[in-house]
Amino acid sequence: QRYILNGEELMKRWKSLLCLYSVVCMTLLAACNSEAPNTSQIAEDDEPKISLDYGIIDPYPETIEDMVLEYKGSPIEVTVMLQNGDVAAEWGVLLYMNGVQQPYKFEDQDMVMKSTKLKPGERQDLRISFTPVGGKAGEEMTMHLMTVLNPSFRITSDEEVTYGNNHKLAQMLPYRIIMAEDSPVPLPEIMTEQQTQELPDELHEQYIQTDENNQTIDLLDNYVGFQLHQSGNDGAIFHVKNGETLNLAAQGFGKTTKYRVSLYLDHELVPIREGIMYNDMQIETGKLSTFSSSIDMSAYSPGSHFVYLIAVPITETYTLDIMDAIKTDSAILWIE
């Protein structure tokens, strides 16, 4: 179920790197060659499905090696194309620089997620500019360009129990950012905190499959998963009384990878701990890594909200051999 891709057919058709997901299973897929990178989200059958082609078209990278932008002291400017598929949908555009949320300007307005509603087959080109967060002259940084499906969707009834495919994240291969000058935007404080234990068998067993040759496959050999739980609540829907504190536990497991993790409430970045927005976690094979977070809910109105994590892989140097960024499903939060 995780990989559904006819790579040869797609590469012949697009002559590009394709990062794909189907709204049926909302699973990220990838295939690549030496041609220009792009993204596409496709369906498994002939019925109309929500889908999107997107990517940076100016400057247009002719090959994967051209996926490079340089900061020379002035904001970097790019044009992001959004080509909607056969079903009307809303799309939000996110940037992350070395795992840190990257603000950008669109039509002279500062934002972190520009959202746009597109009709079937409609295309929109977004001209955006940004000054990389952090980074010193001579360094190379990694930029992730991602999209979020229907970011404005919000549950308003207690009869609804899941956000389903809404708020799902898709991504393309990361860009290399060359820093010719120091960035005037400082890197925010980042903590490194986690507790590590053996991966529980009941969790591990969910990722064990048997192939057609009756061979056992451990999906965690090449996969990382993240979960977000409310402390003291085994349910999928979170509840907190107005003015009290929401206590959360974030967990990661799978292939050994370092991730920079951030927490969001109603799409807004919120502190993980004492004003610190990011936590670096070292995921280890066969282990379950956990950190806790508390959110003061006194500033939020009663009613329906949502909360999630975004975890972006970070490496010492830029590389295409990198795991996917991960967004947990938006968890329903009721403030009572």
Helices and strands: which structural class? mainly beta
Q: Identify the strand order in the major beta sheet.
A: 2-1-3-4-6-12-9-10
Helix content: under 10%
CA-based gyration radius: 20 Å
Mean pLDDT: 87
Q: How would the global form be characterised?
A: globular
Helical run tally: 2
Strand content: over 45%
Instruction: Give start-end ranges of low-pLDDT stretches.
Output: 1-44
Instruction: Report the strand count.
Output: 29
- Biggest sheet descriptor: 8 strands, mixed
Task: Give a description of the structure.
The protein has 336 residues and is mainly beta. The chain is 4% helix and 48% strand. The chain has 2 helices and 29 strands. Strands 2-1-3-4-6-12-9-10 form an 8-stranded mixed beta sheet, covered by helices on one side. A hairpin with a 2-residue loop joins strand 7 and strand 8. The chain starts with 6 loop residues before the first helix and ends with a strand. 33% of the residues are buried.
Provide the fold topology.
Blueprint: H1 7-14, E1 16-21, E2 28-31, E3 36-40, E4 52-58, E5 68-71, E6 76-84, E7 89-97, E8 100-101, E9 104-106, E10 109-111, E11 114-118, E12 123-130, E13 140-149, E14 169-171, E15 175-179, E16 190-191, E17 195-198, H2 201-204, E18 208-210, E19 216-218, E20 224-230, E21 238-240, E22 245-254, E23 257-265, E24 268-270, E25 278-283, E26 287-296, E27 303-313, E28 326-327, E29 331-335
Parallel strand pairs: 1-3, 5-15, 16-25, 21-29
Antiparallel strand pairs: 1-2, 3-4, 4-6, 6-12, 7-8, 7-11, 7-13, 9-10, 9-12, 13-14, 13-15, 17-26, 18-19, 20-22, 22-26, 23-24, 23-25, 23-27, 27-28, 27-29
